[in-house]
Specification:
This protein is mainly alpha-helical and about 130 residues long. About 85% of the residues lie in helices and about 0% in strands. It has one domain.
């Protein structure tokens, strides 16, 4: 039980990113056409307009990979107490969020970009807490 309390910050961070990115990645997989149509419309007046066919599968893989790695890190920390993989959870989450942030800014969706900032703060806190 002491092992769980010692690793609670790591467990919370990895669980948070597992839920966030697995849900987002799976949503893109299960409703690919809907996401494609939404993003095509979202970026139609931006320099990314012709790139949605490449960007959507890229972000889908990145988000799903981030979620899966975070889930693995959660389970590894919970079962063994080892946090070796856990640092990759917020690190990869940061990469995913920066990709999303870039798209929002280029697409001039400033409110959408601003909504990502709290998630990025969680990334920075997660990196700091797990590194300790």
């Amino acid at each position: 039980m002491d092992l769980i309390f010692t690793n609670l910050p790591t467990l919370f961070i990895t669980a948070f990113f597992a839920i966030l990115f697995l849900q987002s990645g799976l949503d893109k997989i299960l409703d690919y056409r809907g996401n494609f149509d939404y993003l095509s419309d979202h970026f139609k007046k931006s320099p990314l307009a012709g790139s949605v066919r490449l960007l959507l599968p890229t972000i889908t893989v990145l988000e799903t990979l981030t979620g899966a790695l975070s889930a693995w890190a959660f389970l590894q920390t919970l079962v063994t107490g080892q946090r070796g993989m856990a640092i990759f959870s917020p690190a990869l989450a940061g990469v995913s969020l920066l990709c999303l942030f870039f798209g929002q800014r280029v697409g001039k969706d400033y409110a959408g970009a601003a909504a990502l900032v709290p998630y990025f703060v969680v990334v920075l806190l997660g990196l700091w807490m797990i590194k300790m």
